[in-house]
Amino acid sequence: MLKARILICDDEEGIRRYLQKLLQAKEYEVETFADGASLLARLEGGTDGDADMLLQDVRMPDMDGIEVLKRAKKLRPNLPVMVMTAFGTIDSAVDAIKHGAYDYVTKPFPKEKILGVIENALELDLLMKENRVLKEELNRTDTPDNIIFTSEKFRAVYELTLQVAASDANILVLGESGTGKELIAGAVHYNSSRRGKRFLSINCAVLSDTLLESQLFGHVRGAFTGAITTQKGLLEEADGGTLFLDEIGDVSAAVQAKLLRVIQERSFIPVGATKSKSVDIRFVAATNKELEKEVQEGRFREDLYYRLNVITIDLPPLRERPEDIEPLADHFMKKYSRRIRKEIKGFAPEALQLMHGYRWPGNVRELENVMERAVILTRGDVITAEVLPIRQREPAAPAADNRLISLEHIEREHIERVLRQTGFHKSRSAEILGISRKTLDRKIAEYGFAIPGQSGSSAGDPDA
Question: CATH second-level architecture of 5-139?
Answer without folding.
Answer: 3-Layer(aba) Sandwich (3.40)
